[in-house]
Structure formats: structure tokens, C-alpha cells
Design brief:
Number of strands: 38
Number of helices: 11
CATH topology of one domain: Rossmann fold
Structural class: alpha+beta
Strand content: 25-35%
Oligomer: single chain
């Protein structure tokens, strides 16, 4: 007989029938249907917190995000936005009466473009959300003015008449590194009593820069902003800091130090501006991002935290200090910096060795954040910073109850050159070190990504199902990964792929040496940089039985000439393929393809600009020419991420099929066959089968 279980998530509950049998790993659909939480924002008075809940909508094939609201003690959680599509980036008005957010829902105002994020406001106590302006290209970001009567936003300027006329005469096309739509600052006044939205007022009107991050001064008279020469990713290193006076739109450059200089934050007294800089480096890719300060009118730039050996992201500057977020190994923390002395202290957040996305109430009396420990799901918490137990707002970890879940553990080893490398080892609950297990390696992207022991739902790779089949899984934080300092991140400069590969292989060898790995059943997989390292394994090792390359680089020359982020390669390889073809060849998996023997699955989006799809075609053709079993799956219309649930289902099932055959001896399906799917807790339309509690206030 089945038993009924209630899984509560942020004020709603799913009634789930759980068979009274031994616990099983989540199915692929169950993994894809697990809700996640993000972007907590605490109210100015510290009494309430609004946050995002992302769920799966199979009917529209989308991951939809809604806003939820709860009291700061975790009680009275309710869904705040009920409209179709997503609502994100919530922000409280300074007086605490309103909540503004972005949404790609169908626009309520005339001439609202489809599928573009527009700016909405709604009463914090509940009511109907109101669109406050129409932006032809959508809104990138926004911030409330201190008086709570208007908002400042960044948005791309409308398409120029000359471009519209050109399209009328010649059809649609664009000129590479031209035809830019510059992002500018705009002021949006709240609708008056007649509820009619006002036209947004453009603040900056420059053809020489495109605006990114910004912050409004405490007195509401000036905006500090970062801007680069154009919105192209390859121009990020040109970012400099400016101010603009709202009274007359007068723009002044205040930082001319070599960039990028980004993410400005005003001091509480409005005399200084903190920002992220990378002194001595042209790009951010592997260099540390430091907290720097400049006067509101410009002048000398001072780096406040030169001893902090990791990226530092400013959260907020208050009278209690300058708060920033940073990593320490697999952990992430909140730090308080004394602007006068430069001394930094870590803020203790009990039960959250991995904390992020911080938001402060007025006076920093309380902080909301996403927090997790090893083998725990990331939840929204509120802490008063007085050493007590934080209030847990969400309970997403309940989704895993009744399921067999692998244990995560941070392990370490020495690479071939003596470098210490860490990773996360996944083992079954009944792990026996006297047994032999197949080993699957799942490699993160970046290279400045990182794997942590946090409990999370599987997406591209069905790790929990691999463990249930009898494997153990290693997720290595190879050289270049975030969290281990600038020197570690720069160890793959002119060594991409080569050093990364050595770190992965040495991790595999360290586990084999412990005696519990079946060395004849090894597999590897990864996406982006992880796909690149997996391609290196395909072409450089005959020890693996199967490899999966997801959107991976096979040839740096092909990559460099086609990617949307060419400075990445120049910074890591310190040259172009025209000036140093040898380093491009040495670090390209395709150079070694004649040695390839490992059956390889290749997956990628057909419209990938970050890792051009030519890399996958090149690797597939080379493997096919050398008689290596290969299968290539192209996801039509997708870019670098595969970000819709049905296609993520396909990615997961292709990987389960591939490794199921070559590692576990299961039949190999040439093509996936749809199987009958039982109604899930979310239902086929993405809505819960049953709910408990208050269901929100937006009509």
C-alpha cells in the first residue's frame, strides 16, 4: 500500500504518493521538477523577506520563477506573484511600502514588446502588480530612488530610425562589432493617482559608452555607474566609473585606472564610492577582483583588501563597515571590511558554510541570504548577526525525503606537479571501502567554476542515478577553479587542458590507490570547460570506457575565431593563434585525436556563441574518421546552456543511456524513445497537485 507524504516548500505543499518500498534515487523527472530558491531581499525594517522560487512548467517547457513573501521568522510564507512566466529581481522601496520587480509576463501597457522584461511595482501588503513603463528592449536592472517615488533603470535604447529604415530597404542583418544598441540610464516615476504610466526619462545619452552596474547616492541626486565602450563581451575590459547628476544629466568620469572597474557602491555619507577592480590585470578571468575606493569626484584609487586572496564582491557599505562576499575553498562567506584600516573579518552564519546572495535591512540589523552546509540543500535564512540561530525561511530539502541520496565529501590529492587539488566525492549511503566501484568523473565549467558538497538537484548529468547503479562520482576542482586564490586560478595560463587534465587524472589515480575503484570502469563528462577537459580525456587517455563532451572546446583556433569572448583565450594563452600557433595546438584536444579510442557522446546547443558549435562538429568528424564510436546530439535553437526542462531531460537521458551501456553493461539505445510519464507532484502544467495555506495576493 502507498503512503501519502506532504512535502512543504515555502508555504505550499505537494501531496506525493510514496511507495512503501526501499528508497530510490530520484528519477530524471523528479530531479528536474525540484524547486530551487534565490535572491532573498529583506525589508528595510527587517520584518519580512521576499525571495524567488523556481519551478518546472512542462506544459510551456520552461523553468518559471515566482516571488514569495514570508515573515523574517519563517512564518506566513505565501506566493506573491501569480502571473504566467517569471517574476524576478525583487526590490523593496526604501519606505517598505512597495516591491518592484522584473517580469516577462505579457505586458499590461500598450506597445509592450513580447518576452521582454518590464518593470512592475506592487504593494508590499498584497494587491495587483502594475507595469510602470514600457521599454522597447526590456529592462536590464533597476534601483529605487531614496524617496521611494521613482526608480532608476538600465535598458537598451530603442532601435534607431536609421536601422529601421535599413531593414525596410534591405531586410534584417547586422554588422559585426557595429550596430550596437547602447545601454543607458533611465528614470521611471511611479504612476500617479490616475494610474497612467509616465514615459521613462533617459538620463545618459552617450554613443561612446554602454552602462552596466550603477548605484544611487544616499541623497538621491547622483548616480555612480560603470560603463564600457560598447555592450560587446569583448569590451568588458574597457569598463570605467562615472557619475551623472540627475538634475542636469552632467556626466563625469571618476576612475581612469586600467579596467575593468565595475559595480559601484556609495559610502553612507555619500563622499566615496567602492567598486570592484583588478589592479594590474586587463581582464577578470583569473585575476583577483579587489575592493577599491575612490572619492565621489574622482582622485586617487585605494585598494582596501590587498591581502584577501580571492574575488571580493561588494554587498553593501553601511556605517558598520563595508560588507563583501568571498570564497575560501569550497566554502563561501560574508566579510566585514573596515574602510579605514583595511582589516576584514568573517561574519559567522551558523549552519551555512556556503552562504551567498546577501541582503541587509536598514542599519544592517538583519541579513537575508542563501545558506547551506555539506549534504544540505540551499535555503533562504534570516540572521540578526548576534550569534543566535538563523531563522530558516524555506524548506526545499524536504523534497529529498524518502529518496536515496548520495553522500558528498570534500577530498584532496596531489597533482603531478605537486599542486594540492580538492574535489567532491559522491558515495552511496552504504558505501563499503572494501568493495570496488565504477568511477565517473563530472567536471565543472569555467574554468573558474567550483563544485561544493551542497545537496542539489541533478540537471545535465544524473549523478544520483549513477550512484544508485553502483558507481561513485568525483567532481574535481581542478586548477583554475574559484575559491583557492589567484595563484591556483592562474596555474592553467598557457597550460589550459594540459594542467587541468593532469589534475583530473591524478584525482582518479588517488582514488584507485585507495582500493575501492574498479579501474576498468572509468567514465568522464562535463559541460563547457568541463566538456573541453572531457575532450582531452577522449584524445589523451585509453583508460576510460566512455566520455561525454558537452559544449566543449576541441580546437582553440576554431574557438578563437568564432567565439563571442575572444579575450578569454588571449588572457589564458597569452597570444593569438596567428602569433603562437604552437601553444594553440598544444592545448587543443584535436591535436591528439589520432590516439583516441574512447566512445564519446557529444552534446551542444546549435546556436552556442560562447563555444561555437564548429568545435563539436570538428571533434565528431575526427573521431568518426578514426573509427571511434561517437554520437552527436544538437539541441536546436539553444545557446551555451540548455535551459528548458524537456531538453534538459533529453541531455540527462542521453548521458544515462551512454554510461549505462559502456559502464554498466546496459543495452545502448540509438535514439531516445519517449516513455509514459506518471503525473508528478508539479503536474504536467507545472502547478502543484494540492496546496496548503495562503496562495498569494496578486490578481
Amino acid at each position: 500500500m502507498n503512503r501519502i507524504k506532504i512535502i512543504a516548500l515555502a508555504g505550499a505543499a505537494w501531496l506525493v504518493a510514496i511507495p512503501a518500498v526501499a528508497a530510490k534515487a530520484p528519477t530524471i523527472d523528479q530531479s528536474l521538477e525540484m524547486a530551487s530558491f534565490g535572491s532573498p531581499k529583506i525589508s528595510p525594517d527587517g520584518r519580512r523577506v521576499v525571495y524567488e522560487v523556481t519551478t518546472t512548467n512542462w506544459e510551456t517547457n520552461a523553468f518559471d520563477t515566482a516571488l514569495w513573501l514570508a515573515d523574517a521568522d519563517g512564518s506566513h510564507a505565501r506566493r506573491l506573484t501569480l502571473a504566467v512566466k517569471s517574476s524576478t529581481d525583487a526590490a523593496w522601496s526604501p519606505d517598505g511600502r512597495m516591491i518592484a520587480f522584473l517580469s516577462d509576463r505579457p505586458g499590461a501597457l500598450p506597445k509592450s514588446p513580447a518576452d521582454k522584461k518590464q518593470l512592475y511595482v506592487m504593494p508590499a501588503d498584497g494587491g495587483e502588480a502594475q507595469q510602470v513603463a514600457v521599454f522597447e528592449k526590456g529592462v536590464n536592472a533597476f534601483q529605487w530612488a531614496p524617496d521611494s517615488k521613482s526608480l532608476i533603470a538600465t535598458a537598451e535604447v530603442p532601435e534607431a530610425k536609421a536601422i529601421k529604415d535599413r531593414k525596410e530597404s534591405f531586410g534584417d542583418y547586422h554588422v559585426i562589432h557595429a550596430d550596437y544598441g547602447m545601454v543607458q540610464l533611465w528614470r521611471v516615476a511611479l504612476p500617479g493617482p490616475d494610474a497612467h504610466a509616465a514615459e521613462p526619462q533617459q538620463i545618459t545619452k552617450s554613443d561612446s559608452f554602454s552602462v552596466d552596474g550603477f548605484d544611487i547616492s544616499p541623497d538621491g541626486r547622483t548616480v555612480a555607474f560603470a560603463a564600457q565602450r560598447d555592450p560587446d563581451l569583448i569590451s568588458a575590459h574597457t569598463s570605467e566609473l562615472y557619475t551623472v547628476a540627475l538634475a542636469d544629466s552632467a556626466v563625469k568620469k571618476i576612475v581612469e585606472a586600467p579596467g575593468p572597474n565595475v559595480d559601484p557602491h556609495w559610502s553612507p555619507d555619500g563622499t566615496q564610492i567602492a567598486f570592484r577592480a583588478s589592479p594590474g590585470a586587463k581582464y577578470f578571468f583569473y585575476a583577483n577582483q579587489k575592493v577599491a575606493v575612490v572619492g565621489r569626484d574622482g582622485g586617487p584609487v585605494k585598494v582596501l583588501n590587498p591581502a584577501f586572496d580571492e574575488d571580493a564582491a561588494v554587498v553593501r557599505w553601511t556605517r558598520e563597515g563595508l560588507f563583501f562576499a568571498g570564497r575560501k575553498g569550497t566554502q563561501s562567506h560574508l566579510f566585514r571590511l573596515d574602510p579605514a584600516s583595511g582589516a576584514a573579518e568573517e561574519i559567522a552564519l551558523p549552519g551555512s558554510a556556503m552562504a551567498a546572495r546577501f541582503s541587509f535591512s536598514d542599519g544592517t540589523a538583519k541579513v537575508a541570504y542563501l545558506g547551506a552546509d555539506a549534504n544540505r540543500f540551499a535555503e533562504v535564512y534570516v540572521d540578526d548577526l548576534k550569534g543566535g540561530q538563523p531563522a530558516q525561511i524555506t524548506h526545499g530539502g524536504d523534497q529529498f525525503k524518502g529518496l536515496a541520496i548520495a553522500r558528498r565529501e570534500v577530498v584532496s590529492w596531489k597533482s603531478g606537479d605537486g599542486t594540492k587539488v580538492e574535489g567532491v566525492l559522491f558515495t552511496p549511503a552504504d558505501f563499503d571501502p572494501k568493495k570496488k566501484y565504477p568511477l565517473l568523473v563530472v567536471i565543472h565549467g569555467g574554468p573558474t567554476g567550483i563544485d561544493t558538497p551542497v545537496l542539489s538537484a541533478d540537471r545535465y548529468y544524473p549523478v544520483e542515478r549513477f550512484v544508485e547503479k553502483g558507481a561513485i562520482v568525483l567532481r574535481p576542482n581542478y586548477r583554475g577553479s574559484a575559491g583557492y586564490g589567484e595563484k591556483f586560478r592562474s596555474l592553467n595560463v598557457r597550460n589550459l587542458g594540459v594542467g587541468d587534465y593532469a589534475d583530473v587524472i591524478s584525482g582518479v589515480e588517488s582514488l584507485i590507490a585507495k582500493g575501492f575503484v574498479d579501474k576498468d570502469r572509468l567514465g568522464a563528462m562535463g559541460w563547457s570547460e568541463g566538456g573541453y577537459i572531457s575532450a582531452f580525456i577522449t584524445t589523451s587517455s585509453d583508460r576510460f570506457k566512455a566520455v561525454s563532451v558537452g559544449a566543449g572546446i576541441s580546437d582553440w583556433m576554431t574557438y578563437y575565431a568564432n567565439t563571442d569572448i575572444t579575450p578569454f583565450t588571449r588572457q589564458y594563452l597569452l597570444s593569438t593563434p596567428w602569433d603562437d600557433p604552437k601553444i594553440y595546438a598544444r592545448t587543443s584536444p584535436i591535436t591528439y585525436v589520432a590516439k583516441a579510442k574512447t566512445p564519446t557522446l557529444i552534446q551542444q546547443g546549435s546556436a552556442d556563441k560562447r563555444v561555437p558549435v564548429a568545435n563539436s562538429f570538428e571533434l565528431r568528424q575526427a573521431l568518426e574518421d578514426h573509427g571511434v564510436p561517437v554520437k552527436m546530439v544538437l539541441y536546436d535553437g539553444f545557446g551555451h546552456p540548455i535551459n528548458k526542462p524537456k531538453q534538459q531531460r533529453a541531455v540527462m537521458e542521453e548521458n544515462e543511456n551512454w554510461f549505462g551501456h559502456y559502464i554498466f553493461g546496459e543495452p545502448l539505445a540509438v535514439a531516445l524513445t519517449p516513455t509514459p510519464r506518471h503525473p508528478s507532484p508539479n503536474g504536467e502544467g507545472g502547478e502543484p497537485a494540492s496546496r496548503v495555506g495562503n496562495e498569494g495576493s496578486e490578481r
